[in-house]
Amino acid sequence: MMAATRAPVLYSPELLALAVELADHPLDREAIAQGNARSRSCGSVIELSSAHDDYLAEVGLKVTACAVGQASGAIFAREAQGMDAAAVSEMVSALASWLEGDMPSTILPRLELLEPARPHRGRHEAILLPWRAALDALSKPSAPR
């Protein structure tokens, strides 16, 4: 009799631990750049703030999402600092390719923690949500200073 192979656990302790990191990145409603994104498939919402409107700095997040969306937000908050809209857009494309199995998880540190979510298409939008909120924030015209 063959031993059954176990699928990776979607909500691993490591993935759940990422959600705690969001406390290090509180949303700043007074920041110059504000963006948000909502998942049409699951209803998750991410609000984002950045101290600059031409690149991401002092990123703050308010995440109303499943643990996968929260983990993605935590990875984003650490890795997206300093990215401009072009770099964020490139990462959205790379992540979409990764979700389809066309790219390795090495495109972003700690992305391997989200590996068990790849077969769950309903979680894909939650993974992309912080990046889409960043594009929203970086695409708005800046307010006069």
The N- to C-terminal Cα distance equals 71 Å
Give the CA-based shape: globular
Question: Which sequence of strands runs across the widest sheet?
Answer: 1-2-3
Number of helices: 4
Low-confidence stretches at least 5 residues in length (pLDDT < 50)?
none
How many domains? 1
Return the string of H and E elements. Answer: HEEEHHH
Under the CATH scheme, the architecture is Alpha-Beta Complex
Q: The CATH topology, please?
A: Sufe protein. Chain: A
CATH class: Alpha Beta
Helical residues, percent: 25-40%
Structural class: alpha+beta
Mean pLDDT: 90
Largest sheet: 3 strands, antiparallel
Rg value? 16 Å
Give the total of beta strands.
3
Strand content: 5-15%
Tell me what you see in this structure:
It is a single chain. The chain is α+β, with helices and mostly antiparallel strands. The chain has one domain (13-137): Sufe protein. Chain: A (Alpha-Beta Complex), CATH 3.90.1010. 37% of the residues lie in helices and 12% in strands. It has four helices and three strands; from the N terminus they run H-E-E-E-H-H-H. The chain has helices spanning 13-21, 67-79, 85-99, 124-139, and strands at residues 33-38, 45-50, 60-64. A three-stranded antiparallel β-sheet has the order 1-2-3. A hairpin with a 6-residue loop joins strand 1 (33-38) and strand 2.
